[in-house]
Amino acid sequence: ACMRSARRRAGMGLFVTLVVLCSCNVGDLLYDDDLFAAQVTVRNFAGTDGCGWVLESGPHDHYEPTNLDPAFHHEGLQVWVQLRRRHDLASFCMVGPIVDVISIHTGVDAPNWAPGAGS
Predict the structure, then answer these.
(1) Rounded distance, CA 97 to CA 70, Å?
(2) Pairing mode, strands 98-105 and 61-65
(3) DSSP-assigned states of every residue in 1-21
(4) Which of 3, 4, 26, 46 is the one with CA 20 to 30 A from 85?
């Protein structure tokens, strides 16, 4: 009887865990502190397995955009971007975090949402 009760508790615990995990909204995986801005260079990594256009903020800092507009598919183009990290996606490229492009700006001057803009 003791073994049967332990199995029931374990089964109930698994059930509750699954209900909680399945009730999560994918949007819950996006945190407010994952919204950030940076000046980046657009790079074509199509020669690297599973890669395409990436954003480079430094020699070893890259971001994989999910939605970079084809109008910005120009090797070496420097832009300001506002990005949001995606924790719910994975990629074969794996050169950096996966991000959504929220805003993009091609001007020399930093846009008002960029770090240090207007100060």
Answers:
(1) 20
(2) parallel
(3) -HHHHHHHHHHHHHHHHHHHH
(4) 46
Report the candidate in 49, 118, 105 with the shortest Cα–Cα distance to residue 77: 105
Which residue in 63, 54, 56, 60 sits closest to 99, CA to CA? 63
**101 residue type, one letter:** V
Nearest 10 degrees: CA dihedral of 98, 94, 64, 55? 130
The two structure tokens encoding residue 53: 């256009």
Buried b (16+ CB within 10 A) or exposed e, 51-61: bebbbbeeeee
CA torsion angle 106 108 113 119 (round to 10): 180
**What is the β-pairing status of strands 78-85 and 98-105?**
antiparallel
The answer to pTM > 0.85 is no
Compute the average pLDDT of residues 23-51.
75
Instruction: Report which of residues 110 and 19 the model is more confident about.
Output: 110
